[in-house]
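Re: [ENG-882] Designed sequences occasionally contain unexpected residues at chain ends

Forwarding the minimal case from QA. Structure tokens:
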């Protein structure tokens, strides 16, 4: 005998499944020993696997983001500060999901995974501009650099965040099956982007000013100037940063050529664009 149990649309799959499994344990104690109860299909397993996947992706992404930032910034402390905003943003997103009535499912977790991949963008821009302001006027102190550096990039970063929001927010108002499927994903991405921008312009500058410290930035200036010794770890970071310096050098030599011959390179870009449009039209046929 098989029994299929379906939850109501507003019910939480994981909670319902947990309650059923708890009840099954009580039934097993009352049933004869020759009767077995097996779970053939458990929908919550896929949700739990997706949740574990998001958690693993967040941990791996945070570690990789930290390593990349160390190579670029050459500072462990401030690189760690950028990564710390990831769990703060995710927890804030989960809090708003709770009050908005969005449950943890494959679609909403997909939105979290998508949002986590984009939430460090604002933080990286903010901390790099703070670095630049401090190197220009170190006598003003780290707190002044954090304030001025954050204010300078606030407008373009808000515009960048709003472009992402403007892409996903209209999905919320889509009707039909597509709207029902992707509404939660769109809400989660929008919430994640807004929260990440707020944290990048409030919490991150405060952490840089209070925890990052002048010594960490000074170590980077020494490192960039080629003076001083950084030890084996600094040598490893230098080695890993070699491709980045090569790209920067190539870009510095290529950019003036693009500016001098604007129409020539613009025609190449337009040609590539026209070719891509033609390829897209052929695929639709």
């Amino acid at each position: 005998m098989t029994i299929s149990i379906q939850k109501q649309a507003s019910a939480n799959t994981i909670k319902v499944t947990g309650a059923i499994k708890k009840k099954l344990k009580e039934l097993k104690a009352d049933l004869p020993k020759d009767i077995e109860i097996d779970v053939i299909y458990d929908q919550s397993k896929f949700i739990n696997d997706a949740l574990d996947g998001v958690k693993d992706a967040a941990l791996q992404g945070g570690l990789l983001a930290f390593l990349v930032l160390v190579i670029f910034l050459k500072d462990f402390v401030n690189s760690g500060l950028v990564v710390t905003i990831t769990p703060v943003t995710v927890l804030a997103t989960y809090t708003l999901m709770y009050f908005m009535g969005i449950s943890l499912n494959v679609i909403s977790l997909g939105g979290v995974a998508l949002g986590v991949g984009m939430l460090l963008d604002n933080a990286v821009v903010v901390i790099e501009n703070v670095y630049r302001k401090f190197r220009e006027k170190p006598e003003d102190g780290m707190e002044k650099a954090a304030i001025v550096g954050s204010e300078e990039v606030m407008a373009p970063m808000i515009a960048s965040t709003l472009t992402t929001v403007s892409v996903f927010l209209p999905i919320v108002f889509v009707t039909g099956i597509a709207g029902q499927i992707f509404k939660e994903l769109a809400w989660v991405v929008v919430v994640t982007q807004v929260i990440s921008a707020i944290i990048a312009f409030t919490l991150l500058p405060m952490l840089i000013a209070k925890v990052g410290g002048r010594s960490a930035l000074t170590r980077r200036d020494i490192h960039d100037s080629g003076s001083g010794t950084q030890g084996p770890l600094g040598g490893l970071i230098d080695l890993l940063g070699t491709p980045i310096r090569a790209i920067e050098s190539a870009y510095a030599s290529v950019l003036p050529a693009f500016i001098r011959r604007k129409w020539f390179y613009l025609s190449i870009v337009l040609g590539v664009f026209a070719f891509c449009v033609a390829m897209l039209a052929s695929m639709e046929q």
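QA comment: On inspection the terminal residues look reasonable. The longest helix spans residues 43-73. Proposing we downgrade this to a documentation issue.
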